[in-house]
Amino acid sequence: MSDSKIVKLVDESSNRSSELPLISGTLGPACIDIGTLYKDTGHFTYDPGYGSTASTKSAITYIDGDEGVLLYRGYPIEQLAEKSSFLEVAYLLLNGELPKPAEFATFEHDITHHTMMHEAQKNFFQGFHHDAHPMAMLAAAVASLSAFYHDDLDVENPADRKMAAIRLIAKMPTIAAACFRYSIGWPMRYPRNNLEYVDRFLHMMFEVPSEPLQLNPVAAKALDLLFILHADHEQNASTSTVRLVGSTGANPYASIAAGITALWGPAHGGANEAVLKQLKEIGTPDNVETAVKRAKDKNDSFRLMGFGHRVYKNFDPRAKIIREMCHKVLAELGVNDPLLDVAMKLEEAALKDDYFVERKLYPNVDFYSGIIYKALGIPTEMFTVMFAIARTSGWIAHWIEQHETPGSRIGRPRQIYTGADVRNYTPGDKR
Ligand code: CMC
């Protein structure tokens, strides 16, 4: 990391200036360190949506949006998708290195032996209406973990932090499956620890007491791959939320629950649910042209869900992998989904349309993932929950990194005040 170059900023009206160091990371553009700007010049910076702002240093994930590159701890996503597993990726995100076989065995053992929910926690679900959205139940259930594990909540203690990471990665599938089963009135299943992570989750989702479940290995492989692709994505809205909440010293379960609620929005992880609903509304390839027209109309709030990204101005590398996987999975499962035809037509139409080309709007990770989830029998309302299971590994890796970084401070942005100037209180009868 080199901090040698300086950018000089001069406020000509006051003649005050600030010498701002340039900070370079391993990869990516250098950043101007504006930490002393307010002290030197009396000015803040203004960057709504944080389009030009790096909020932290981080060694976990790197994205080059112009080139369509995504690295976890330096490893290209394409290599991890082909050769790794979700649990190995979770270890990598948390620890910075791929595990040796003995390290992985210990990690897998630890995860496997923390998969159960506390019996009392199961009662929480009875308080929800039967049609509660699973993301609402998930956020509440994850926040409530802090009520069960309050003896290990010292955020300054590395062993407590590690235990929280293990518990969260281990219990997310159990809680997620419970949300699903509660919503359809099925009895909750206990995790089967003789199964691997993704198989165990599918078992908890779909096994019924009355007959044995035949798990299709194609389904488990596809879900594991989707989990790898969703595991982390540097300082996106939900990860930034986790870090902001974490910066206050809040416990890990509260911080991750906040990340879950941020993920839920349709501009972020909620897009996968929105994509499927939109494809169903479009209905047939014949209606694609009208949908594209509406998406371009500035007087219409309609957007093509699953298109565009704040950082990628090229193909989202995850979308490329998922697109290919989508065709394979549907073929291997023998599913013929007409929504895939609508999706392909929509992609083709948008990619050659000037509006999308000029704005560099490409399909993102959420565009094809819903079609795969649907083929696996996962209901639409559960799509963002799937994203949350995977992203928990990234969120908790960031939360730990934040606590391991010396000199971390509470996150506290400023504002440009646009309200009334100072004025005097007037009594009610004089207003
Ligand atoms: N359909 C139509 N127009 C779009 C779309 C879209 N999906 N996305 C962006 N635009 C237009 C936008 O109207 C604007 O046009 P103009 O320059 O004429 O005002 C331009 O493209 C730039 O868009 P922006 O809203 O300033 O871009 P942003 O970086 O603030 O937003 C985004 C990024 C992902 C929220 C946005 O592209 C979007 O709403 N996409 C649809 C939702 C979606 O798929 N979200 C998932 C993102 S990837 C997974 C994740 O993050 O969880």
- Small molecules in complex: carboxymethyl coenzyme *A
Instruction: Tell me the number of helical segments per DSSP (H or I, 4 or more residues long).
Output: 18
Radius of gyration: 24 Å
Report the principal-axis shape. globular
Poorly predicted parts: none
Total number of strands? 6
Structural class computed from helices and strand pairing:
mainly alpha
- Estimated helix fraction: 40-55%
**Binned strand content:** 5-15%
Largest sheet entry: 3 strands, antiparallel
Strands ordered across the widest β-sheet: 1-2-3
- Quaternary structure: single chain
What string, H for helix and E for strand, traces the elements in order? Answer: EEEHEEEHHHHHHHHHHHHHHHHH
Our measurement of the CA-to-CA distance between the termini, rounded to an integer number of angstroms, reads 60 Å
**Overall pLDDT, averaged?**
95
Spell out the key features of this protein:
3-stranded antiparallel beta sheet; 431 residues; binds carboxymethyl coenzyme *A; mainly alpha; 51% helix
Blueprint of the fold:
Elements: E1 6-11, E2 16-23, E3 31-32, H1 37-41, E4 61-64, E5 69-72, E6 75-76, H2 77-83, H3 86-95, H4 101-112, H5 119-126, H6 134-148, H7 158-184, H8 197-206, H9 217-230, H10 237-246, H11 252-263, H12 271-282, H13 288-296, H14 317-333, H15 338-351, H16 354-358, H17 366-375, H18 383-404
Antiparallel strand pairs: 1-2, 2-3, 4-5, 5-6
This protein binds carboxymethyl coenzyme *A.
Tell me briefly what this model is.
Helix content is 51%, strand content 6%. With 431 residues, the chain is mainly alpha-helical. The chain has a three-stranded antiparallel sheet with strand order 1-2-3.
